[in-house]
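Predict both folds.
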Amino acid sequence: MATLNVKGLPDALYKRLQARAKRDRRSVAQEVTHILTEALETPKALSILDLRGLGKEQWAGQDAAEHVERERTAWDS
């Protein structure tokens, strides 16, 4: 397993990292590993079923066919 040393880390940032690690009941090293893993993982692709219902609040009261027609007209201009 690799070792990572970070030089020049601002004290305030390290204290925030310590606080986050404590809140999540992890060591500072575990917290850094967790943060890097989340930041560098490829997000899972969503299927159309996963997207069902997302944004429905924005579409309340709107006619989908009219919206599509307006969009098509705007792109054709």
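Second protein follows, with its predicted structure tokens after the sequence.
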Amino acid sequence: MTVPSVSRPVPSGAAVALVATLISIYIVSQFLRNSIGVIAPNVAAEIGLSAAEIGLLSSTFFFVFAAVQIPVGVVLDRFGPRLCLIVGAAVTVVGTAVFAAAASPGALVLGRALLGLGTAGSLVASLAVYARRFPPERFAALTGLQFGIGTVGTLLATAPFAVSAATIGWRASFLAVGAFTLIVALLIALVLRGDARPHGRHETLRESLSGVLAVMRTPSVGRIFVMNLSVYSTFTLIVGLWGGPYLTHIYGYGLEERGNLLLVAVLGQIAGSMLWGAMDRLLGNHKLPILLGAGATAVALGSLALVGKLSALPLVLWFAAFGLLSAFAPLLIAHGKALLPAQQVGRGLTVLNMGFMGGAFLAQAVSGFVIGLFPTAPDGGYELNAYRTVFALQALFMVLASLAYFGARDPLQQRPDGRQPALSA
């Protein structure tokens, strides 16, 4: 089956409203996945959480998010992105309320699980809208915007969230996020009118599940999935987990200094997502910029592992470069989408997204085990060699993933004009 053309042109004003709304729900997702770090001491003191329970609380979001990607893909292709986004936003609102009202560790974990479930389709459903509503050659750039501006949610989960929690409390702050999510859900219902479900015959459940298997059997999708495992996991390994402890244990930095350096990496990620997102059109190639980005990121991690400790200015530059270089995920999504026929785009994007989130979950679990093999200081800090080992292993993982990805087919290279060719089922 040939991929149909864009269903209808989107007027410029409507396009801006559409993209802004879809980015807004992704900002919510980015905020929620990164929101535990800032308030962890407050929540632990108020509820009485152990370190293990804080770890469970943080990882629950990623586990649930990754676990439901295939069902989300089936729902997306059966019922369309509009319903998927609205229901997901509703579950997210419930999750914020449960989390805000929680008085026990179990209730906190339940709220966190609902947040992971509710936001699980926020990215892939948005990308499915872009695939349907816009020309194929704009897909990577729109994905770059989604990733880049959406990362504002990560920024909001740091210093701004700390100010909010100190002013109105973390519980009221989560209720405010729920209220904002409800407003975005209403906007989604307005800007996506007419996209209630895909056109054509409604698939049976068996056909939908068969489509998931077809995605997995698509040549080169497995290679892209392996690359996906290494990309987001590399960024979250530093910004979402070990960057803060590394800056504390090795440099003696306090909360404000840690936050500022991690903010530099996030700003680099935002700029990099938008820059990398246009590279496939500029170069007429998916694979070359992806391999360049992966290689440069591996070199950055490997260099830090080799040197161990940097002086002040090089450290700032390293965090900026790391965020910029590791932001090529939009190109991987565009490559995966280019390999799939239209009726499998939703399932394909969720399968690939499962690689992003599953890779983050695995990298954090494995790195925690590795760091635990090293002795700790009397104050509980980890030694430099522990961090160097983790950084080196992640660099090696990215190199191995790049080798697996190197053999992937690139449809974009088959067109002299750099536009994605029509795909046949």
